[in-house]
Write a structure and sequence with these properties.
By secondary structure, this protein is of the alpha/beta class. The chain folds into two domains: about 40-205 and about 410-430, Rossmann fold, CATH 3.40.50.11720; about 230-285 and about 295-410, Glycogen Phosphorylase B (Rossmann fold, 3-Layer(aba) Sandwich), CATH 3.40.50. It has 17 helices and 14 strands. The chain has helices spanning about 1-25, 55-70, 85-95, 110-120, 135-145, 155-165, 165-175, 185-195, 240-250, 270-280, 295-305, 320-325, 345, 360-370, 380-390, 395-410, 415-430, and strands at about 50-55, 80, 100-105, 125-130, 150-155, 180, 200-205, 230-235, 255-265, 285, 305-310, 325-330, 350-355, 375. The protein has a seven-stranded parallel β-sheet, sandwiched between helices. Helix 4 (about 110-120) crosses helix 5 (about 135-145). The relative contact order is 0.10.
Length: about 425
């Protein structure tokens, strides 16, 4: 009954949703690709793949090693679905050379869309990453006896509270999942309190600790980040750049170097460019640094100014700039959006600074803060904290070493996830 009510509401909202979808893609050309995929017409490039759904860039980066392991160790093809365009672009960057991995957009959560998707691709299993719980998708998989596993599961206190308000829908949905593989014991308890059977929930650790740091290739940062200190602010969100630019402009005179801003969403590049222009400091767009018509006067002013700004308006370069950084600020944490993954910077041995809103990565941030690899700041304390980090090399080294050691110590969730998935698939074949 609960699923029926949910499905009816989805179909009632469908005409309005389609209108908004058409208006959206009319205004944003990058969303026009994959239009029919959003309604179930996914490409049939692999034979009975494992379908892995990672909503956006953060989830995809975390799950990428597991996808590669499924292909290499289990010898199975994989279809990766995302929700966001940035996630799709990141997927293409990671797996462009792997013909055993294909990608598409996940359909909207309608019974007919999910039925069409499953009928076309006939997946061996469906893996949902972190909190990607869709009632109709899970129900359709259950009816067609497709094993459905939540991997690298996490559930913040805020999300658990929201789910509890809809227990009439959430509890039956959870019971249709084959297994739930979660990051920590607190998350496991939250799923059980929402109605899941304790026997189906396994605590395997976070896949984010098993991230693979790419080998150092050509240093793309060398020409755009001159000598001096480098403060990289990654995955920044609305309102954060204002505070970061203000702090950069108010630092003591002895601090000389480059502020690197990497907005989370490409549609905000122009907005952040306006903020850089208003700062009064010399700045560049990364995309313009290789332009032949770049005025040399601007380039010289930028390179020789003691305090400069670089706006990275290209996707997939964050790790390159993290590697160059002296200090990393991880965005989404001054803005109340839950924060983004600090482990990429920590794994590179960088001291990490975040705002107080880290509820998407509570356990990770708590662990990093406990070993003093991360410092939590606020808008009021940002200037003081970044001043101390940029002027104290010993502190930066201590924090970076502690964070890297924690990441190395916590690895192992990848092997545990792979074994659990393999066992689930074997049990499904035996039934």
């Amino acid at each position: 009954m609960a699923l029926f009510v949910y499905t009816c509401l989805c179909y009632l909202a469908l005409p309005i949703g389609i209108i908004f979808h058409l208006l959206f893609i009319w205004r944003r050309a990058e969303f026009r690709r994959g239009f029919w995929q959003r309604y179930g017409w996914l490409p049939q490039k692999q034979h009975q793949p494992v379908l892995v759904h990672a909503a956006s860039v953060g989830e995809l980066n975390a799950i990428a090693p597991l996808i590669k392991a499924i292909v290499s160790d289990l010898k199975l093809p994989v279809l990766v679905t995302t929700t966001s365009v940035t996630g799709q672009l990141r997927c293409q960057q990671i797996f462009a050379g792997n013909n055993r991995v294909s990608w598409a957009y996940l359909p909207v959560d309608l019974g007919v869309s999910n039925w069409l998707m499953l009928r076309r691709i006939k997946p061996r299993a469906v893996l949902l990453v972190e909190t990607e719980l869709w009632p109709n998708l899970i129900a359709t998989c259950a009816r067609q006896k497709v094993p459905t596993i939540l991997v690298n599961g996490r559930l913040s206190a805020r999300s658990a509270k929201a789910y509890a308000r809809f227990s009439w829908l959430v509890a039956p949905m959870l019971k249709k999942l084959t297994r739930i593989l979660v990051q920590d014991e607190i998350t496991a308890q939250r799923f059980v309190s929402l109605g899941e059977q304790a026997s189906k929930v396994s605590v395997l650790g976070s896949l984010k600790y098993d991230l693979v740091i790419p080998d150092r290739e050509l240093d793309i940062t060398n020409s755009v980040v001159p000598e001096g200190l480098c403060w990289v602010c990654g995955s920044t969100r609305v309102s954060e750049e204002v505070a970061l630019l203000q702090a950069w402009g108010q630092l003591p005179q002895q601090v000389k170097g480059t502020l690197v801003l990497v907005p989370r969403h490409p549609q905000r590049f122009d907005e952040v460019a306006d903020l850089c222009q208003q700062s009064g400091l010399p700045w560049l767009r990364y995309s313009q640094t290789h332009a032949e018509n770049q005025p040399s006067a601007i380039t010289n002013e930028y390179k020789h100014h003691p305090r400069r700004i670089l706006l990275v308006d290209s996707m997939g370069l964050l790790m390159h700039f993290y590697r160059r950084a002296d200090v990393v600020f991880v965005g989404g944490s001054l803005a109340n959006t839950g924060g983004h993954n600090p482990l990429e910077a920590a794994a590179l041995g960088k001291p990490v600074l975040m705002g107080p809103h880290c509820f998407n990565f509570t356990q990770v941030c708590d662990q990093l803060e406990k070993v003093q690899g991360l410092r939590v700041t606020t808008n009021a304390c940002l200037l003081e904290d970044i001043t101390q980090l940029l002027t104290d090399q010993s502190l930066r080294h201590t924090m970076g070493t502690a964070g890297a050691a924690l990441v190395d110590q916590q690895k192992g969730a990848l092997k545990r996830h792979l074994l659990a998935i393999e066992n689930t698939l074997e049990q499904a074949l035996g039934e």
